[in-house]
Amino acid sequence: MTSAINPNDIDGAYPVAGQDNDSQGFRDNFTNTATNFQYAADEITDLQNNAVLKAALTGTTLDNNMNESLLYNFQAQQVSETLNNLGSLVTGSQTLNWTLGSYKTITSTNGSISLGFSNWPASGVAASMVLQITISSVAHTLTFTGAVSVNNAGIQGLNTSTNTITFAAVGTYTFQFSTVDGGTTITVSEVNKRIQPFNNTSEDLVSATAANLALTTSYFSTAAAETATLAAGVAGQIKTFAMYADSGDMVITVTNAGWKSSGTGTITFDAIGDACTLQYINSKWFAIGNNGAVFA
């Protein structure tokens, strides 16, 4: 802003020493002095209310709330983000509040976590936040609730029908959430890929459980007749099953079976060495290799 203070309104040579001075000159100087003081007070108050400060003014609390004002054409150095540490969550739901900090950390202590979102800025601006989550057990899952549009290209263990992620290994995973419409649609992408080698992601599949979509291979040894399930995958995903000991048939019920016109199908393993490899193609599981397993 241009200051309204005008030092030229004050006659510094008045009154003139050694002569009779007109009282009007005194009044003019006093009036202009008072006017400039008022201008100064108004402008200082305006600066106190609106300026960005590096420290609090005497008797005040620092508040550099920009109120979403545009800041442009600047160079930043040594910029940090507010850390919102959500601590350990035993199980249940957790809401990620954008206003509390754009970088959040959480630990799954004893169960699965369901994530919601709140207080995004108004539609028309881009906003994002990062979640660093430590998974302490592969049994724990992460589910996104609300209007979440998952960038599923490469997110391991994602079930797109439920927006639930299963994890291939314990460890720390990082996801970024972004929106341009006030949270009506939230895009999720994985920041740190924890993709393990093809030959190092496997599980011993237990009867009456779901095959882990985050793992490439599920192998099993039956003690009697057993069952398992395979949920829908993501485009291009590969899943292998193998029987290494047989004391009863293993029947796996497969969602979106490519050998059926629609719906589920089954794969039966009834001998040691039975194995097959599936790939998720055009929203269905197709057998791309088979040794002795029976498809129905």
Brief sketch in words of this structure:
This protein is mainly beta and 296 residues long. 9% of the residues lie in helices and 37% in strands. Strand 10 and strand 11 (186-190) form a beta hairpin.
Question: Radius of gyration in whole Å, from Cα?
Answer: 34 Å
The helix fraction, in percent, is: under 10%
Multimeric state of these chains? Answer: single chain
Total strands: 21
Helix/strand order = HEEEEEEEEEEEEEEEEEEEEE
Low-confidence stretches: none
Number of domains: 3
Count of separate DSSP helical elements: 1
Strand order, main sheet: write it out: 1-3-5-10-11-7
Strand content: 35-45%
Structural class: mainly beta
Mean pLDDT, rounded to whole units? 88
Q: What does the main sheet amount to?
A: 6 strands, mixed
End-to-end separation: 79 Å
Description of the structure:
The chain has a six-stranded mixed β-sheet with strand order 1-3-5-10-11-7, with no helix packed on it. A five-stranded mixed β-sheet has the order 2-4-6-9-8, with no helix packed on it. The chain is mainly beta. The longest helix has 28 residues, at 23-50. The N and C termini lie far apart (79 Å). It is built from one helix and 21 strands. The chain has three domains: 7-79, no CATH class; 83-190; 198-295, Jelly Rolls (Sandwich), CATH 2.60.120. It is rod-shaped. The chain has one helix spanning 23-50; strands at 83-89, 92-97, 103-108, 113-118, 127-135, 141-144, 148-150, 158-159, 164-166, 171-179, 186-190, 202-204, 209-210, 217-221, 226-230, 238-245, 250-254, 265-269, 275-281, 284-291, 294-295.
